[in-house]
Design brief:
83 residues, mainly alpha, respiratory chain, B12D, transmembrane
């Protein structure tokens, strides 16, 4: 029903098409980023029986940030104790 209303508005006012595309791509991008955070962030624990503290199993060369400027994670060495 909502999609049909958007299509009828877009047919009547073609200048709304870029607005619908930008808002739609923003919503899809936000949903994908939240899904990436839920699946690959070390702070999120889905399996508490097998891996209760996933943040302790990270190696120093694991990149878990979305984007890092001028940091080469492959050159980092371990400087902390094992738990």
């Amino acid at each position: 029903a909502m999609f049909r209303i958007m299509v009828t508005h877009a047919k009547k006012h073609p200048s709304l098409i870029p607005l619908f595309l930008i808002i739609g791509s923003g919503g899809v991008g936000a949903a994908l980023y939240v899904m990436r955070l839920a699946m690959f962030n070390p702070d999120v624990c889905w399996d508490k029986k097998n891996n209760p503290e996933p943040w302790n199993k990270l190696a120093p060369n694991d990149q878990y940030k979305f984007y890092s400027v001028n940091v080469d994670y492959s050159k980092f060495k371990k400087d902390r104790p094992d738990f």
